[in-house]
Amino acid sequence: MTDLVSVIIPVYGTPLSVLRNCVESLAKQRGNGFLMEAVIIFDGDPEFDGTVVEDWEFPTVTVRTATIGHAGVSAARNAGIGMAAGQWAMFVDADDVLPDHAVESLLDFARRHRCDVVMGAYRSVLDDASNGEAEEHHYLTVDKVFNGEERDGFCLDMLRPQKGIALAWGKLYAAPVLHGIQGFNELLSLGEDAEYAFRACMAAKRIGYVDSMAYEYRRNAESAVRTFRTDYVQRTVAGIKALNATVARIDQPALRKQCVECLDDYALFHLTIIMINYLFNPNAPWNHGERRKQYRQTLNLPIFRMPLRGYHGGRFPLTRQAALFSMKWNLYCASAAIAWVRHRQFGD
Predict the structure, then answer these.
(1) 3-class SS shares of the chain: helix, strand, coil, % to 5
(2) Which end of the chain is more exposed for a tag (fewer CB within 10 A), N or C?
(3) What's the domain range around 260?
(4) How many domains does the chain have?
(5) What pTM did the predictor assign?
(6) Are 117 and 172 in contact (CB under 8 A)?
(7) What CATH number did the domain enclosing 132 receive?
(8) Domain identity same for 57 and 203
(9) Distance from C-alpha of 88 to C-alpha of 107, rounded to nearest angstrom
């Protein structure tokens, strides 16, 4: 049996050479019993001639394209879901790549164990890293099938950001899951991956994990702390609230209660990111007094204030715990020092 795997690739501002590299990583996939289609959605008119992409030819990959009015990555992915014709689907960002044999590993495991969603390990690579070092992320050290209560446990882990699995990419989705749930929340510009992936896994009866590389995430400076967004807190809060609303709709009371308990950690995790990316971002336009005011206002938001009050340590790496305690006790200078160290690590 030959299955078709649809790979949905949203494109916005990506250079043609980078997009080509992404699609070529699909063409390098090897294995029996599957073909692939690259469903490329341009989120607004590309800066290059899009017909060039339509003319790309690969023996095992069919390239299909569409252009939508600029509406964000969620709208582009949703358009791709609507076009996807495969029995299976994956999401790949245009500046990322699939490692060799990624599709074969995920699809073979899904077939053998009748899984609806299969996730693999992934690695993060900084684009400008001269030494080519990569940070690998492994959920487990062995392959595993999750069903019943273990599936519920996997879904709970998706609400624990420190686990690093609440991601749309790095997973293979069966078509009934892909088309059986609502698409990405187009009102969100942060947290849309976690909210969608959580719903997809909640809709799956059997989830698989393969401890082999299934995705390579290319980090770049523009997506890290060097970019300052005035609406960063509002966008983050919107994502947390959307996930809270999704959890509130779970129809299993015991599981819903467990998920609600995990949401405090979800909020706290993102508060530490706000501390680095927003409150102590070197590119923020504030003077010292204005930065202190932003610090107080952010920590007093109910969505962060209540989890901070209830936090007594643990569950996070030591550096993140230190950041949380500095904010819990309103130790502005300690928070600033932790952020300074982190920015030094980033090279800012």
Answers:
(1) 45, 20, 35
(2) N
(3) 232-346
(4) 2
(5) 0.94
(6) yes
(7) 3.90.550.10
(8) yes
(9) 8
